[in-house]
Amino acid sequence: MKIVFFGSPAIALPALNSLLTASHEIKLVVTQPDKPAGRGKKLTPPPVKVFAENHGLPCIQPEKIRKDEKALELIKAASPDINIVVAYGQIIPASIIYLPPYKSLNIHFSLLPKYRGAAPVQWAILNGEKVTGVTIFQLNEKMDEGPILTQQETPILPRENALELETRLAHLGARLLIETLNHLQTIELKEQDHSQATYAPKLTKEQGQINWEEPAEIIDRKVRAFFPWPSTYTFLNDQRIEILTGQVVPGLMPAARPGEIVQIDKSGIYVCCGQKSLYLVEKVKPEGKKEMSAYSFSLGGKVRPGSSFS
Question: Does the model's pTM come out above 0.90?
Fold first, then answer.
């Protein structure tokens, strides 16, 4: 099939690569503009643009696709049979959604209608879901509300963080996309049950601050869900510390204040949490420094049993 592909981050690459491998014809790639990144704020292209250039695929980067007439004309000139959308990052107008004969399909990283929105993987982990999946649905002008073509579920692994789960779902979605395109003409569209919809809004940096009065299980979910962005953090002696990995320690703790460090060994820093639960901090990134084991951090800083994270 002739395809116009819309996508920007690395999680869109498995689908784009699978389309090429399956001998579909990518007529045009549409991705986000280059953006400043890193400490030097150097303009950096999105991963999909780099992939397109490396594979000789034509690529455009409209600032606002809803208002870009030139982009619309280029998409029309590509004469696609279908548009494929994976984490593009902009709202696509109806003039583009409904342009091809088979319209536009989107890969969404949840089992719709659950977790519509920008952060379905993160919210599934935050809410303690045991199962998630991917949905391929037909775009319309509302957010993730179009009819469903295919879905596939998968368990969320016990210590899986958002990056690991999202990467796994990207590959699962890529395989499902090829199967869906192979049977496109025989698949019946299934309308979503909007009464069952839940939402996954974009996360903010402020949401990443740990409240040690919450149970260790809730803190563990947050650490996993917020990795690598926006990250979870706490403070020790006014120093901001990102917590990168950790785990719940089974059993009840003796009485201690939430946030109090009760033990340090080579496994890491053991912190008392709400409901007399215990969380083991394994890897951290102190402000202005590189990531390190929590034990290494304890050796170099003023960290000892009895100290407290705020």
Answer: yes
